[in-house]
Write a structure and sequence with these properties.
By secondary structure, the chain is an alpha/beta fold. The protein is 34% helix and 22% strand. A hairpin with a 5-residue loop joins β15 (362-370) and β16 (376-382). α4 packs across α5 (163-174), α5 runs parallel beside α7 and α14 (425-436) packs parallel to α15 (462-488). The model is unreliable at 193-200 (pLDDT under 50).
Length: 491
C-alpha cells in the first residue's frame, strides 16, 4: 500500500482536473478523497468523492479517518498545488519520520503564470494557537498520531467549521509541528482578497458561528494545557489614593506625520469633559516638519505636553513608556494615534466614565475604518463583539488584537509597561493585564481609523508580515507559560 491518503476539496473551474491529475500521478498516494457537495464529472481513477459536510467539519474528518488506511493523510484545504514530482511528498514523509512530528508543512512558490516567487512560511511555536495559522496549501499528518491523540483527548466535538483546528491543537500538545524551510510545490496565484477582508475576517458578523466554534475549541485547549484563567480569578482595579495632575491624558506617539498630527491634536483638544485632561505627545525625532507643527500648537495651548526623547532607539512602545511615566500623566492614559481621530467630542468622557465606573485596569473601544477623506470604507465598524466578559481574556490569545481605542489605568500600565517595539506592543500589554484584571469594552464607534498609503501597516511585504506573525506567536508563547505558572500557583 502506498503511504498517503490525500484529501482535497472540489473547486469549480477548468484548473481543477489538471491539478487533480497532477496529484494522482504520484506513486506515493494510495487514494484521493475529494470533498464535494455533489457528484463530480470525470472523476479520475484512485479518486473518490465524499459528500459530507464542510471540509473542516467533524463529519468530514471522521469519514476521512475511517476510510484512510495509510500511514499519512495529506490535507489540501483549498486549491490543489502543483507538486514537484515525487520530491514533494518524499521530502514531507522523510521529515515526518526523522522528526516524529505529527504535522509537517513547507514553504512554496507563488506562480503567477509569468514567473515564480518564493513564499516562505513561519515556524510553528507553542504559541502559534491562532486558528488562521498559515500552513500553506498542504500539510502532511501522521495518521497513527491522529488516532492516538483522539484516544487520549477525546473525539472531536460535533463541529461544522473547527474540527481540523481542534485536531491540530490536540496533536500539538504531545507532538511537534515541523516546518520545512524550502519550497516543495507551487500555488497558482489569482490575486489576493482585499486587505480589509482578510485582516478583519474574524470580526465580520457573517463569520460569527465559525468564530464561536473556534473560541470553544481554543478554550478547551487552554484547559488541557493548564493555561485557562477562570473569570472569577480576575480582579477589579483598585486605584491608589495619591493624586494625579489631571484625570486623563491622551497619549500620541508620533514620527513624521506632518499631514495628520494637527488634526489628531485638535481632535483631542476638542473633547468635552467634566474633568481635567491633557495631551502628551511623544515626538520621536520627526524630520518632516511634524515637530514644528506640534511646537506651534503647544505654544498656543498649555494642555499639550510636547516630549522629544533623549534616546533615538525608541519604538512606539518605548514612546508610550515615556508618556505614562511622565509626571504630567493623568490617572488614565488614553490612546490616540497620530493619523486617527476621535469620532466626536464626548469620546474621552465616555472612555473615562467606563474605566472608572467599572473599576477596570483597561478599556477597549470600537472604531470605524475610513479613508483620507474620512469616508467609511469596508469593513467599516470594528467592534470586536467576539469579546465576552467571561472569556474574552482567554480568547484574546487566539486572535491577533483587541481593538481600539485603548485606555489604561495609569497605575496598572506603569506596572506592566510596554515592549520597546513598534508592532504588537499594545497586544503584549493587553495580554498581561487581561491575565489578572477585568477589561471593559465599549461597542459603539469612538474612533476613526484612517487607512492611507502612509500607514505603518499599509502594504506590508511578505517578509514583514511573517516577522509580525512570528513576533505575536512569541508573545502568545510567553503568555501561555505565564498563565500555566499562575495556574500552578493556585491554592
Amino acid at each position: 500500500m502506498r503511504p498517503i491518503t490525500a484529501v482535497c476539496t472540489y473547486t469549480a473551474g477548468s484548473m481543477f482536473l489538471p491539478a487533480l491529475r497532477n496529484l494522482a500521478a504520484s506513486d506515493l498516494i494510495e487514494e484521493i478523497l475529494v470533498v464535494a457537495r455533489e457528484p463530480i464529472p470525470d472523476i479520475l481513477p484512485r479518486c473518490t468523492t465524499i459528500n459530507t459536510g464542510p471540509f473542516a467539519s467533524r463529519e468530514t474528518f471522521e469519514t476521512i479517518l475511517a476510510r484512510a488506511a495509510t500511514e499519512y493523510i495529506l490535507f489540501i484545504p483549498r486549491t490543489i498545488p502543483m507538486l514537484a514530482g515525487t520530491v514533494t511528498l518524499e521530502r514531507l514523509i522523510r521529515a515526518a519520520r526523522s522528526t516524529g512530528a505529527g504535522t509537517v508543512y513547507s514553504d512554496f512558490y507563488d506562480d503567477t503564470g509569468k514567473g515564480k516567487t518564493l513564499h516562505p512560511l513561519v515556524d510553528y511555536q507553542s504559541g502559534s494557537v491562532r486558528d488562521d495559522f498559515n500552513f500553506g496549501a498542504l500539510a502532511l499528518l501522521d495518521a497513527s498520531i491522529i488516532r492516538k491523540t483522539l484516544q487520549r483527548y477525546g473525539r472531536t466535538p460535533p463541529l461544522r467549521h473547527a474540527a481540523l483546528y481542534d485536531v491540530r491543537l490536540k496533536m500539538s500538545i504531545d507532538h511537534g509541528v515541523h516546518h520545512i524551510a524550502e519550497p516543495l510545490y507551487s500555488v497558482l496565484s489569482h490575486g489576493e482578497a482585499p486587505e480589509g477582508e482578510v485582516h478583519f475576517a474574524y470580526v465580520d458578523p457573517r463569520n460569527q458561528p465559525l468564530q464561536k466554534e473556534m473560541e470553544a475549541v481554543f478554550t478547551d485547549h487552554l484547559r488541557r494545557i493548564n493555561a485557562y484563567v477562570p473569570p472569577e480569578r480576575l480582579r477589579k482595579m483598585e486605584e491608589p489614593a495619591e493624586p494625579f495632575p489631571v484625570r486623563a491624558s491622551v497619549i500620541i506617539p508620533v514620527r513624521n506625520r506632518r499631514k495628520t498630527i494637527a488634526d489628531a491634536l485638535q481632535s483631542a483638544l476638542s473633547q468635552e469633559t467634566d474633568f481635567t485632561f491633557n495631551v502628551i505627545v511623544v515626538d520621536n525625532h520627526s524630520t518632516d516638519g511634524t515637530t514644528e507643527v506640534i511646537a506651534d500648537m503647544a505654544g498656543r495651548n498649555p494642555a499639550i505636553r510636547h516630549i522629544i526623547p533623549d534616546r533615538k532607539d525608541l519604538g512606539i512602545g518605548g514612546c508610550w513608556n515615556l508618556a505614562i511615566m511622565d509626571e504630567a500623566c493623568g490617572r488614565y492614559a488614553v490612546q490616540l494615534d497620530s493619523d486617527d481621530l476621535y469620532e466626536n467630542h464626548l469620546v474621552l468622557e465616555t472612555i473615562v466614565d467606563t474605566i472608572r465606573d467599572g473599576n477596570y485596569a483597561m478599556v477597549v473601544g470600537s472604531y470605524t475604518i475610513v479613508n483620507e477623506r474620512l469616508e467609511q470604507i469596508p469593513p467599516g465598524l470594528i467592534d470586536h463583539r467576539e469579546w465576552t466578559a467571561d472569556n474574552g481574556h482567554n480568547n484574546a490569545l487566539r486572535v491577533n488584537g483587541l481593538g481600539a481605542p485603548r485606555a489604561f489605568s495609569t497605575t496598572a500600565i506603569r506596572r506592566t509597561g510596554f515592549l520597546n517595539v513598534s508592532y504588537g506592543e499594545d497586544y503584549a500589554a493587553a495580554l498581561k493585564i487581561s491575565r489578572e484584571y477585568r477589561i471593559g469594552r465599549i461597542y459603539e464607534s469612538l474612533y476613526l481609523c484612517r487607512r492611507w498609503q502612509g500607514n505603518t501597516d499599509a502594504g506590508l511585504s511578505l517578509e514583514a508580515a511573517n516577522r509580525n506573525d512570528t513576533f505575536k506567536d512569541s508573545l502568545r508563547t510567553a503568555e501561555i507559560i505565564e498563565r500555566q505558572k499562575m495556574a500552578g500557583e493556585s491554592p
